[in-house]
Amino acid sequence: MNIEIEAGKPSTIETALLVLPWCQGRDGEAERPAAELDSLDDLLGLTLTRAVTGGDFGARQGELLLLYRVKGGGPDRVLLVGVGSRPDLTGERLRQVGGQAARRASEAGVTEMAVSVAADWLGGAMDLEAGSRALVEGAILGSWRFEELRSEPAEEDHGPALGSLTVLVPNAQSKRLAKRGADFGRVVAGAQNYARDLAIRPANIVNPRYLAGEARRLGEELGLKVTVLDRAAIKADGMNALLAVAAGSDEEPRFIALEYCPLKGQRPLALVGKGVTFDAGGLSLKTPQGMETMKGDMSGAAAVLGALRAVAELELQANVVGLIPAVENLPSGHAMRPGDVIGSRSRKTIEVLNTDAEGRLILADALNYAARFEPQALIDIATLTGACVVALGHHAIGLMGSDQDLVDEIRVAADNCGERVWQLPLWDEYREQVKSEVADIKNTGGRPAGTITAGIFLREFVGSVPWAHLDIAGTAWAEKAGAYQPAGPTGVGVRLFTEWVRGRAG
Ligand code: BES
Ligand code: MN
Ligand code: ZN
User: Fold this and answer.
1) Domain enclosing residue 224, as ranges
2) pLDDT value of residue 159
3) Of ligand 1's atoms, which has the minimum distance to the CA of residue 281?
């Protein structure tokens, strides 16, 4: 999407659609129009004031009202988008405004829109950079569609896609801040849509080799160093847990490393993403319904690829390494069996009681491999446990970690970018649940606290690096559409990682 910043008045901007985000005042009714909007109102035949003061438009969260110009130049249409009450004005609300406006624009058959934002209007809620960033992110995320496997457009995507967005600010001095925010928003939302594209493509397209090819393509485009280990190299490196999961599939596994290192001699930040391109459960086979969204079991890998893309495009000043263990988890005559004891890169032995708890096995080897880079901090992201969906539903990432300072940094980044996290404890008492009768550890901890015992399992393979774990089982796939999120893959993690790296880069 083409993004521009323009300084000027709402009444004179030449656009097919001008978006005005609108708050409710203390009385719970739409705020009165500011005097600056008088000439715009005149072009609209005074319908703006009538709608806002007459109660037609209450500025409730998500409420929309489309008005048409009846004379003069300026915008053809004006779209009021309700924010809700002013104290609720946050980046997340503006992201929603951007998404709703983009969808409404497309319904109106419009391919270009402008959205008005000003520091005065934002008040103390946020600065112009954060405001324009959120609006741009919302518009780009809300415009995402996946059409490449259809011969005809879907019925719900009838309107044309939005091709161009202008951020309208009141004066030339505001342009610099608005542009900074819009540039960041454009890159990070583009990277998030890229992660959605990867997750929605079916497993007969996106297999481990495909993910490796995608990493190489990104590397060439953005100047990243990319290393891919094939089955033989994975074996030579001792990643036996990864190999055990891969054994059931005819698709060869891949281990992928991407390095974005603009700074000499600085230890990197390491991101690890679960790349199970399809999870049938292995011999501990899932039900047909349980498999329906399991092409998305590589959403952690997609988040890591998206984050590296965003970080490199933004040229953030931090070294970042992305690691992706990529496999397919299928049952076959070669598959690992429940009860098997397997090795791992760390040399710890693992009793596999349930072959469907495969994510933690491949992550164990990847987390152990990460130590080679002597990272400052290590974060993994994975669609790891159904228990996380039970605990937190679809509204928060499960967050755990060995280092509370790192966990707190992630919580701050989450607040800033609108991808919510909720911390769960990793108390030593839970360790009992993964004790094995025959091996160093077992890969299931029973029903109680299934998300936590998965985290406890991972921690055993991390070593002394500050580490955090993100369980996105509940947030990687949306069952229902939201304001900037169609039903389907969410690309969760891209904004969170990018925001976290930005904070680290200073
Ligand atoms: N990929 C699944 C987790 C999952 C479930 C993600 C639902 C998204 C939606 C994971 O590999 C898995 O199967 N986990 C098992 C672990 C259990 C056997 C200990 C689970 O949660 O049932
Ligand atoms: Mn599984
Ligand atoms: Zn899985």
Assistant:
1) 194-505
2) 85
3) 13
Q: What separation in angstroms does the CA of 278 have from each of 15, 200, 201, 290, 328?
A: 45, 12, 11, 12, 5
Separation between Cα atoms, residue 37 and residue 18, nearest integer Å: 12
Cβ neighbours of residue 436 closer than 8 Å, sequence gap 6 or more: 350, 351, 442
Note the ligand closest to the C-alpha atom of 454: 1
Given a contact cutoff of 8 angstroms between Cβ atoms, the answer to whether 484 and 415 are in contact is: no
- Residue 359 CB less than 6 A away from ligand 1: yes
Residue 104: active-site member: no
**DSSP code of residue 144:** -
The DSSP output letter for 430 is: G
Strands (E), 131-207: 164-169
Nearest ligand for residue 453 CA = 1
Pocket test for ligand 1, best of 287, 363, 384, 458 (most atoms within 8 A of CB): 384
What are the pLDDT digits (tens) for 215-255? 999 999 999 999 999 999 999 999 999 999 999 999 999 99
| 61 and 209 share one domain | no
Nearest CA to ligand 1 atom 3: 385
Number of structural domains found in the chain: 2
Query: Does 321 lie in the same domain as 259?
Result: yes
- pLDDT digits 0-9 by tens, 138-170: 999 999 999 999 998 887 776 888 999 999 999
Ligand 1 neighbourhood includes 354 CB (under 6 angstroms): yes
**Residue 273 structure tokens:** 């993403």
* Residue at 179 is within a domain: no
Contact criterion met (CB below 8 Å) for 77 and 69: yes
Instruction: Give the mean pLDDT of the chain.
Output: 97
Q: Ligand 1 in contact with 433 (CB < 6 A)?
A: no
Both tokens of residue 99? Answer: 């998404």
Cα dihedral: 326, 329, 332, 334 (round 10): 50
212 and 99 in one domain? no
Q: What is the pLDDT of residues 74-128, one digit of tens each?
A: 999 999 999 999 999 999 999 999 999 999 999 999 999 999 999 999 999 999 9
Q: Tell me if 471 CB under 6 Å of ligand 1.
A: no
Q: Give the active site residue among 286, 348, 411, 420.
A: 286
Residue-wise pLDDT tens digits, 13-56:
999 999 999 999 999 999 999 999 999 999 999 999 999 999 99
Q: For residue 358, is it within any domain? A: yes
Cβ-Cβ contacts under 8 Å for 298 (sequence gap 6 or more) = 198, 199, 206, 211, 273, 274, 275, 276, 277, 326
- What pTM was computed for the model? 0.98
259 lines ligand 1 (CB under 6 A): no
